[in-house]
Queue: 3 jobs
Job 1
Amino acid sequence: MKKWKWIGLCALAGLLACGSAEREEARWMEPGVSRELARFRKASFTDVRYRLYFVIPEAREETLYGSVEVTFRVERKQPVILDFRAEERQMRVVNLNGVAVPYTLEDEHIRIEADLLKEGENTVEVSFTPADQSLNRRDEFLYTLLVPDRARTLFPCFDQPDMKSRYTLSLEMPKAWQAVSNAAVEYEDTISFGAGRKLVVFRETEPLSTYLFSFVAGRFTRETYEREGRAISIYHRESDPRKVAQCPDIAAEVFDALEWQEAFTGIPYPFAKYDLIILPGFQFGGMEHTGATLYNDRRMFLDERPTLNERLGRSALIAHETSHMWFGDYVTMEWFDDVWTKEVFANYFASRIVEPLYPGVNHRLNFVRDYIPAAYAEDRTAGANPIKQDLDNLRNAGLVYGNIIYDKSPVVLEMLTRVLGEEAFRQGIREYLRTYAYGNATWEGLIAILDKYTPEDLAAWSDVWVNEEGMPEITASIAGGELLVEQRDPLGRGLLWPQELTYRVVSGTDSEEISISFGRELNSLRKKLRFSSNENPVILPNVDGRGYGFFKLSEAEAPGVWAALRASNDEVERGSLLITLYENLRRKTISPAGFRDAMLAYLPTERNALLFSMALGYLGGCQRVFPADARPLERALWRLATTLPEPPFRQQAFRLYSSIADSDEAIGRLLAIWERREAPADCVLGENDYMNLSYTLAIHLPERADEIVAEQLARIDNPDRRAEYAFIAPSVSPRVETRDSVFQSLLVAANRRVEPWASSALANLSHRSRERESVKYIRPALEAMPDVQRTGDIFFPTAWARALLSGHTSAEARAEVEAFFAAHPDFPVMLANKIKQQSDHLR
């Protein structure tokens, strides 16, 4: 009897396993790249190489052609499933091992059946017409941007990050154009391809994930710089000599970042070259393609007399992208649910790399200011997500990106480094890079390595920080001579966040700093105060800025915190208190009027450039989210813009003034400045400032809008900036039918290809002063979000939602968003979260 039971159980297990395998195989052919397909291919195909050839015409309207040879090894015959998001008409030839073979093109996959393969090495050759989506074609240049899953829109491939491959690229292109790719140029043939044409052949790359493959071709100026035997080239299209003169500084900061990471990691730069291309209208700040790193021109070429914020921002961007060469390119995540493991290191190390470049800056304050407010901006919302998110298919990988992975994760990593200690952290990171060199890793693999360097259970410590969304609500009170600090999970899950918190209690002239250490067991802790006083004590939370959470205040507590802020000599404390006060404003525990008045009293007293900038931003945020009569704020900002002793402070105050200006007096003042091109009080306004001023004036002065736009366009010499302005300007038209036409055009993917321009146009259409007229755009723009995500790059869904909704504060706008969700109860969760994050101010 037992024997037959055992046989029956084995048979049942076999049937279940067979059924599971069939279900897994059924998911191979889903659009995108399913986790099941990725696992199958990773286990089946090795030693993958791509040989790519593209024919690039000079005219943007002409068709671009491509071909690819994909070579790989198999131990046993398996079906070949290549990713290619194309239609049958884009396919020209499909060969296997030199012979035409039958294939299917279905749901973004080319499939060749297993019986056509041979064991060992095979080569699939495909000739095709690529889609324009990832080619980013302009009149005189193009560039590829394939992160996270867009390589399959450019050429047939195994488009998953854990199948690292080598690439050899050839470009047939106009002779006057330059070309840059991941590897150095092997040779150029300027003779064999007819008049005005040439062939550029690049060397083979190191092992790279598909999203890191890239090339740029077009009319560029090249600047080359050397330091200690290492050369880098900067390619750009800038025509302003004052901006071009910044290239040596940019190159120097690249060299500095490379040297810093080599010293920290103990690993020489692991790729053949580092060149960078500065692109007009680039949709990211930067993108870390090895050997061909892309940068946004406005982030790199700064206007005359840039603010400290702008200079720090450029330096941090360079350090971020350079850090990716080790963290992301050399060692890459296995799947895009762990994409944050490259972004966390890039941002964390960026903050450290910039330190020696700015010896006069309080870098602890800069870290707090850079990351915590941005993390809170999403983590406080109904659209909050964990740092590590579930991802079943790479077609949704772009939705993983956001402030949580870029800004919350460095805060968590800094906590982790304090748990480990600096030297243990450094040794653990070096072991991690050695272990996974030119390969793929997971967060769990990293934690397993770091765990060896500390008695702390890092996996348990990090679980709530990495795998759960949201933050604790933290309150503090005094009773019986003790400070009571309580931590609560506002989402009702009963979670506890282990962290060290520092409070300062002020009573009269006395003050005491108190450390509170939350573990994973107690949600409330008490500490005895060393002094007692009859005066009402003021509790200042998180004064070192190292804690993370909503430090809840009451309206009655706020005046004491504001007074302590103004009296404090500690810059980090002031920054942390500013953040706490603003978060309480956003949570509506303190009043907008009180916040606005207190901030205007504080701003003239602040001499730290980082704090002044942060405070100005919070003041603008208060006016945007809780709009009030702008005239008192206009008058206060104009005083700051014309009387503060520091020119950069005046310039920032003027920029906020121009963005919130609403009264006839303020608009008249801005018009005079724009007409005369004379900034107030020794401020220096660049071309971008005047372009933005013209948009504001055209919106507020409809009777002069056409004249203003025509004049501003005539002032612009650079062809790329002229193209940008010509695209955006119709969005400020005084004619409703024109604006409606612009909006309808933005619903067509082809008109959104230059994403920063499309976002600016949508933001102008949804300007706060036209809220009543633009509410009608909300529903159709939200309906377009799936198409925006499918056809756009990783940050565009968020940028689209922000441009659409940030100018709205009305009940009608809130009702439109609520009605949209009511009509779409099954709307994709990750995409819905982007909308919830950007509509949080409407709640």
Job 2
Amino acid sequence: MTEEVGGVESAVDEHRLSVEMVAERYNVKVDPLNPNKSILYLGIILIVVASVNAFIDFYQQYQTAAILESFMSLVPPEATVIRAQALHSIPAASIVKGDVLYIKAGDKIPADCRLFSVTDLKVDNSSITGESEAQERSLSMGSENPLEASNLVFSGTTVAHGEGYGLVIRTGDQSILGQIAKLTIGEKAPHSQLTKEIDLFVRKIAVTLLTIAAKKMAQQNVLVKNLHAVETLGSITLLATDKTGTLTQNKMTVVGTWLNGAFFSTGEMGPDTPLDPKVPNLSQLVQACALCCKSKFSESEADKPLAERTILGDATEVGLLRFACHYVNAPEEQDAHRKVFEIPFSSLTKWHLTVHRIDGRHISFVKGAPERVAKMCKSIQMGDQQVPWDEEIEAKFNEAYEHFAIRGRRVLALALQELAEDKFPEGHVFTRDPCDIPMDTFVFIGLVAIMDPPKHGVRKAIAACRTAGIQIVMVTGDHPLTAESIARQIGLISGDTIMDASLKLQKPMELVNEDEYDAVVVHGEKLELLADADWDRILSQKEIVFARTSPKQKLEIVTRFQNKGHIVGVSGDGVNDSPALKKADLGISMNKTASDVSKEAAEMILLDDNFASIVHGIAEEVIAFVVFIIFAIPLPINSLLILMVDLVSELGPALSFAFEPPEGDLMLVPPRKVLCQPAPIARDIETGVAPSKPGWIRASWNRICKPFKRDDTGEVLLDSDMLFWCYGQGGIIEAIGCFAAYLIVLVWYSVPFDMLMGSAKTYWKLGAPSLRLTNNTIANADKQIAISGSSQSAYFMGIVICQLFNLWVTKHRYSYPNKFTYIGGGTAIVVALMVVYIPGLNNVVLGGGPVPFVALLAPVGAGILLIIYEFIRRFLRRRGTLWAEV
């Protein structure tokens, strides 16, 4: 019947998340190398706020514990039971079901019992039933209602007279008293109408804003599957993206080959020799491209020319088939030599194997990553000869591989082997696990180089992301040299890698320091060998490319970045990207080229498969940041002064509303309607009369006049009228007054207006260059910080003053404000003056400064204008009954 109360520690834990969120919002980070006192003070304020909230929560929990203690006081500390044929006094908590309990006058009964022996026994059941008169107990049941049964006594009741013996039938939480206690603790009080409206408003506003953002993003070809992804997109600090199909066009074209130890061009102008159909072994290369393939030509377009027919399948295989069609009829070749066995490509093996029946024998073809295929070969086809694979051939192979890779080409190797007829006769059933095909006796045919050009706009998109503070990382399955080449073409890498630095500095890579290179290109095979220190060194770089990665490695990369504090977005289109898409804070999939698995795993889909669409989506979420980057004027108010407004200056005026007397016509106004509409910003006043539909002229006039109309037939916490007052009427007047005070201070200190735009990037901070003012004086960095602090304090004072006028206007609609309004307002002014004019507190702690009194005339003038506007508005609202209802 007891419940643990966590105390202060658990209460603080409950508020830790909110404190961390606010700290992140105001960029509260500890940097021992660059101490910032304002961050320290902000941290102290957040700790104080969290402590106060934790104390309030603890007090509420303490009250809950007090209720439990009050129930526990009804249970006696000791009881008398019969055990081993003798009476024993034991702690009441030790009583168990089946004990024989002895009770007498004056005892508190510790458990529910059925009586089997009584002597003139009466009990006081007032704590259970509320009856003040003592109830007589007997051995007969008396009533079928347990609470009224004469042969039952209950825990927490008192023996008023006599004595008796009973058998314990329920204890602790199972007793009647315990069940009442559980109901008291478990039953939650219903929320008030105000609480419901606040909760609904917060939810609806959040959903509405996210939905609007999602619709805007859809216009940028970004489909949002989950509204939470809208906010996440604006928060990501790192985007890990695949190369093929995301950064590149995924339009594969074979542009070169390495055959018979020589380079050949297949169309792109370059130094390589054009590929002639008579080149030896070309037929084998073409046959391998056509047969070792899962892609097929569309059957519905059989009457079209071969070059115009659609190929269904992977983009890489489409490029290989297009290449093969220059020399053979690929569909006929596939029909003539159908597959009898296949091992599909996987991201783990990185090769694809097929077996075909050709000229009465089984021929096995394999294509895939060159380094993997080379390990499966014992020889290479050179003209009419098969040359053993040795170190010389290995060197030529690596040279050819790098020749294509450094040009950004995707490189595939092809090989074949003729299977022995005695072991693999016609009709042989091949097995995959274990595979009965020899995997180390293939004959290497050659390399094909495939060009996949970068998408248009990717370079600008990456530059925009970097401007917004988002790091772009490439994670691909291609060769490191290919990945690096593409990364340089699109601007993802611009600096030197450790290899480049080694060549420039002419020293081994082991001796190159971290500050001597800017980019890293990491091969997937090396990831499993990295220690934590190596991971930290790699992830600390700004330009990173991971190549030849497996799905498991992609997942680890995402996890490592998240552990370093990044909010990670991952884009991809393949099945192998799915684990990373799921793990990421935001998974982004392509639409046209993506697999169903990756689309399911992602929270966001790019409808046009364009990387630039991600940037457009981010721009929708970071528009405020972009505006600051564009205008970059000195901040009108800092985070500490905002907290002073929220937590100090407005506290007194807000509390004064609690002491406001009822309005004079309160009992003449109908009660507020029960909240049932779908959104608080769309109010529907039910008049009981079906209005006629007005014409467009009258409807337009009614919409213009609506903010000035008074309607007491129904009301919610926050409706369109209130929003229009806050953001379209009173809020505008207050903002003008605050900005005017801010600008007056800048004029007071002779700050040239023509340099304000963009000045925040260079001036108004420690180490800023000197600034020439309009009075021909020079303001150093300290002077600039003082001017900025004074202008921020002016804006802060503007908020306080304007809000006091708004407070008076709001309360004066029906009656004069109560005395606590003036006390709270006066307290707010005093606190604001202390914050602004007390030395040490104004500039050291809160980052502000003294304000020239002339600057305060602007918010005072705005407040007077607010009063005049409200009186006119109120006059028009009183005449609202003369206008048609909307």
Job 3
Amino acid sequence: MRNYLFALLLVFLCVGSRAQEGEGLRGTVYGTVTDAVTHEGVPFAQVVVEGGSVGALADSAGRYRIERVPTGYRSLKAASVGYREVITPSFLVTASAASEVNIELEMEAARAGEVVVTGRAMRHTENQLLGNRALSLQQIEKSPGGNRDISKVVQNLPGVAATPIQRNDLIVRGGGPNENKFYLDRIEIPILNHFTTQGASGGNVSIVNSDFLAAARLYTSTFPVGRASGLSSVLDLRMREGNSEKLRVKATVGASDLALTIDSPVGKKGSIIASVRQSYLQVLFGLLELPFLPTYNDAQIKYSHHFDSRNHLYIVGLGSLDRSRLNFSMKDLTPDRQQILEYLPENDQWSYVLGAVYTRYTSGGSLNIVASTDRLNNSLQKWQNNDPAQGKNIDYRSNESGLRFRAEYDADLGRGFALSAGGGLQRAAYDNRTFRRLSVDGVAVDERYSTDISLVRYAAFASVDKSLAGGRVHVNVGLRLDGNSYSAQTADPLEQFSPRLGASYRFAPRWTVSASAGRYYQEPPYTSMGYRDGTGRLVNRQRLRYIRSDQATVGVAFEPTRRSRLSLEGFYKHYDRYPMSLIDSTAIGSKGADVFAVGAEPAVSDGRARAYGLEAEYRNDDLWGFLFTAAYTYYHSEFRRWERGTPAPRGAWTPSNWDYRHLLSLVVMRSLPRGWDVGLRWRYAGGGPYTPYDAELSSEIDSWQASHRPVADYSLVNSERLPAFHQLDVRIDKTWYFRRWTLGVYLDIQNAYNYKAYGQPGLMPERDATGQYVPDPARPGHYKMMTYEDELGGTIIPTFGITVGF
């Protein structure tokens, strides 16, 4: 591996040092500057390249065009009399095609005494006061170890855990991976990742192609009222529009896939951007001798049509097709790999989202109407001892689908007031056909059930923002009502009354203190609501309710310069009505990293949990030419010990599966002359808790044959901890800008110093020379057991990528 890595690096540097064709070429940037409320053009606005000397003055309709812009990632600064100065997110400038950047300006608040409101590159929005952070295109594209995957890049942010299992489980502020919501240009996307864990949000690779993204924002508190609240986060992704001047094509050979993206004008008022991706991840996993071989494909499209300056329509499509097979050709069959082959099923999965958004701008605001449909099809099967002749251990086939409609109206009421209000209606369906062999208290049980449910969801929401004291004080008051037709407990929206309040005060020119509090609700997963017993009864219908979480945050931020920010935030989250398993007495939310469908079991909404901690972040977009981010989080995530048959949770607080305590992320990136970019990321996470195995129950022959996995001793739930995890990722990019095309190459090295990460010590039966399990002669009905080290990570992963754009 070292020789291969050295050779790859040498080739990369030799290629990068060749002739610098196109050096000194410049590009063009154009677009329209509009009023953020009315969407009318702002006449004669001044637009300049941030940190440069080139710029332009918009015409009477707000249109501008800047020639001779240096190639690479750039930002624009726009200003006009009566408006706040704004600095755009970064975007890529090439010589082969002009870049379209449309800019919205907000009216400047009235002055109070000597206080003047000025634009800030990292200003927080007035109606979302705490716990939201933005990612620029450069951060998404160039993040070391991120492989242009938005699900991995957000792990650089404070409060977001990075774990050694290299999955995209989004674990935010101590919450489980099922506590997150995702939106793409206002459209909810239930499935963000390939090979998703049904009932949660994890997976291996993001479905969203980063070629489409203009920016991303992660909310970890004070969630927007118009978005169905996740209890831990809302990830809001914004896509760019297709090029309105000429056809552009981009081909990418990435770390794990091949991608082709086109964007083009459609007539005089429309544009389109579309992509397809085909993975070769199975080749990489085969070379690494991993026990499973995943293959994924996806497609994405956005069509935009501007009828006029006040009426816009765009259509978004996103689809995935995934297939995972076991790797029986491994030469080095270590105990941990052999164990994975024993229990891991083969998986086929596909999903899609298709939606449309119509926006009507008025003189005092805007109306947004959102309609979409989505579906997830998930099937799993596992043969006993991987031999079809011995019958199945798992046969799981499931569908989730939805039709969604939402209307939102945003209005500027004048005198510092802003209103946002609307409602939503959804039709949802879920079906499941399941056979599985389980081990319940050491006894093998065959479970068969078939289920299908349909329900209607409804929501109403409103929020009011008020700016005071010349823009130094901002107050936000919001409320939301949710309900669904699943049961009498969930049907009454007053039972899910969700108020929230936030305020910020800029008490000095560079200092802001903020606080927020709110009550949020989240529906249990389909898998729990639709679970039926052998008689066909929905056993959870009268036992499940919306999960409730009361949250509070307080923080202070200091902005030493226009491009830097230092912040400190404290948070507290209290959970009630959390679904608890009636099989193993654990919280449903504590599952998801190593299971295939979360929540398909008898459950009751009696659980309580809490998470609390402190986040610190320093970010500087121009620290002596470096983009530098340091984020540290200390927190606790705990569940109340719970016993089956008790009317309420009892006992001491116990760490949840996501209680890593310490999270640290350091990211340094630098753009160098002649098209070079370099970066590194170092991550640290404290050891996660785990539940020891019950060696006696696990060794029983019937129990092992049912699941081929050891049985956890839940009397000692999460009483042990793994070692801490840390990893260094390095990335080098080189881009050549030609007159008619662009060529880019990159080298990304994950786990550069080859840190070995280990999971819970494994437990499995011993095998004889023929590969058969060895019975324990001293204990009839039991196997002789052995322990082994379960290596989760510890391989240097170098990847070489190429992008070509026309």
